[in-house]
Amino acid sequence: MTLRISHVMMAAVIVLSAMAGGCGATYSSVRTDSVKATKDRKSAPDFTLKDSDGRTVKLADYRGKIVLLNFWATWCGPCKFEIPWFVEFEQNYKDQGFAVLGVSLDEAGWDAVKPYLTRFKVNYRVVLGDDQIAQVYGGVDSLPTTFLIDRDGRIASVHIGLVSKDVYQKDIQHLLDVPVTANLR
Questions:
Q1: CA Rg, the chain, in Å?
Q2: Angle 150-151-156 (CA atoms, 0-180°, nearest 5)?
Q3: Is 36 helix (H, G, I), strand (E, B) or coil?
Q4: 14 versus 135: which is more confidently predicted?
Q5: Rounded to whole angstroms, how far apart are CA atoms 86 and 93?
Q6: From CA 53, how far away is CA 93, in angstroms rounded?
Q7: DSSP per residue over 65-100, as a string?
Q8: CA distance 58 to 49
Q9: What gap in Å lies between CA 71 and CA 39, rounded to an integer?
Q10: Would you say residue 107 has pLDDT above 70?
Q11: Is the CATH number of domain 2-183 3.30.70.1450?
């Protein structure tokens, strides 16, 4: 019963987002890749960006952790739906070597993003991205787009558009269950 309600709620959010202009991803364009085999993973491009406090953030600094890298914007309807999940994931899995890192693609910059982070009590780091970082990650052209990166800094899965919380949890748990010694060289 709960699963059915969850799917109904997700469908409603997708329809409402599409009616409101959405984020470039519709229900039919949502793509979910399962966690790729280790041998099939490619390195996540490194970047250096600034967080809301002006501190430098490098993806390489997260090596050894599983990272949920989420490209989003404050005006994106589906992003608003999944950010509370990411807040929960950060809280629940951070002690297991997991981190959420948001990349805002808001053209209005920190003027739009900082109040949003406060309002929604975002507990993970967010950096401000641009077209260049979106291109480095394969031309991110739909929001949200989320990459799950393994402890070696390789892309384990990609989710374009809104997917269910259960899909994220399954992928995260799969990556957390891999012994650290098997993942790190």
A1: 16
A2: 10
A3: coil
A4: 135
A5: 10
A6: 24
A7: SEEEEEEE-TT-HHHHHHHHHHHHHHHHHGGGTEEE
A8: 7
A9: 25
A10: yes
A11: no
Cis ω on the peptide bond leading into residue 45 (within 30° of 0)? no
Looking at residue 179, its pLDDT comes to 66
Q: At what angle do helices 165-177 and 2-19 cross, to 10 degrees?
A: 110
Does this model's pTM top 0.85? My answer is no
- C-beta neighbour count of 123 within 10 angstroms: 14
Exposure string for 89-115, b = 16+ CB within 10 A, e = fewer? bbeebeeebbbbbbbbbbeeebeebbe
Strand partners, 99: 67
Domain residue extents for the chain: 2-183
CA angle at residue 73 from 12 to 5, to 5 degrees? 20
d(Cα 162, Cα 9) in Å, to the nearest integer? 12
The pLDDT, as a whole number, for residue 184 is 47
pLDDT above 90 (res 132): yes
Q: How far apart are CA 122 and CA 140, in angstroms?
A: 22
DSSP 23: S
Rounded (10°) CA dihedral 14, 18, 22, 25: 70
Q: Which two tokens stand for residue 121?
A: 């009590």
- How far is the C-alpha of 162 from the C-alpha of 160, rounded, in Å? 7
- The total of other beta-carbon atoms located within 10 Å of residue 54's CB is 7
Contact partners, residue 112, CB within 8 Å, separation at least 6: 74, 106
